[in-house]
Amino acid sequence: MDNLAIFAGTSNPPLAQAIGEYLGIPLGRVNIIPFPDGEQLVKLEEDVRGRDVFIIQSTCAPTNETLMQLLIFIDCARRASAERITAVIPYYGYARQDRKDEGRTPITAKLVANLIVTAGADRVLTMDLHAGQIQGFFDVPVDNLYAEPVLSREFRSRNWTDLVVVSPDPGSTRRAGVYAERLGADLAIVDKRRVSGDSVEHGYLIGEVKGKTVLMVDDMITTGATICGAAKVCRQSGAKAVYVGATHAILVGNAIENFSTAPIDEVVVTDTVPVPQDKIDAIGKLKVLSVAMLMGEAIHRIHNDESVSSLFSMDNGR
């Protein structure tokens, strides 16, 4: 592991620290200097020549700042003659714009991929991309991990015997199906139509949830409009309890209000995006699990040229 170097940006220091602790190595020394006009200087304070460098940075809020910082980090490591540079992006921002739904709109998921590769990244490690095809937007290898093993382990410990996994919209059906298979549960789907960026309309429920414990799963929670609306549909259809599991807790806009009033018993998320304590307290039913061990193990295997695919299934790891 002497040839391994891990650096972290400012987006999620606790997760980066936990990953370093799992691997048993300290984070690399770096000096990030902001200028009054908003520009940033990133200076690595240790030699990376010929080393295998991993840069941990979620492109979460402030999204443009954290994205630019990641690009500067990569360029800095490349110009310092790192042997290989892996961008570790627990949460990949701009992923929702992955196709042209109408004329004169961008495909930002591809744009960001181009920026990362052009900056000098040789590989990308991320988690629960909003759309799997984004891996094909990169011209370098991409390892897209899933938080499902972490979340499934938590939900299995509840010993539910009447569980139904519900997809909050048709687009999440495949993800919900994976959880249903892992947990030995039935599957249901809530119909959803998006009205605007923060407003959705929910229709009918496909499946049976009456008298059942419902688990809704999604890759991210932004304002919570989709999840909370689907929870109301499930409750109206006779569900006795509703739980939510998601990877990325973005929690912006009126998310706190939505969850505070929604008929949801508990929301379980991961720390791919930092969740401030005040938001945890305000929502009152939010539990945060760590993906540090999963991402740390992936870094260990990439560094040692070992298989990463086995981490996609449950209960694997060192």
From TrEMBL:
Q: Name one Pfam family in it.
A: Pribosyltran_N
Q: What are the record keywords, sorted?
A: ATP-binding, Cytoplasm, Kinase, Magnesium, Metal-binding, Nucleotide biosynthesis, Nucleotide-binding, Transferase
* Database matches in InterPro entries: PRib_PP_synth_CS, Pribosyltran_N, PRTase-like, PRTase_dom, Rib-P_diPkinase, Rib-P_diPkinase_bac
Q: Which GO terms describe its biological process?
A: 5-phosphoribose 1-diphosphate biosynthetic process; purine nucleotide biosynthetic process; ribonucleoside monophosphate biosynthetic process
Q: Which top EC class is named for this enzyme in its record?
A: transferase
Keyword Membrane in annotation: no
- Domain (Ribose-phosphate pyrophosphokinase N-terminal): give its ranges: 5-120
User: From the UniProt record, which GO molecular function terms apply?
Assistant: ATP binding; kinase activity; magnesium ion binding; ribose phosphate diphosphokinase activity
Q: What is its EC number?
A: 2.7.6.1
SUPFAM superfamilies of this UniProt entry? PRTase-like
What Gene Ontology terms describe where this protein resides (cellular component)?
cytoplasm; ribose phosphate diphosphokinase complex
Which catalysed reactions does the entry list for this protein?
D-ribose 5-phosphate + ATP = 5-phospho-alpha-D-ribose 1-diphosphate + AMP + H(+)
Which named protein is this? Answer: ribose-phosphate diphosphokinase
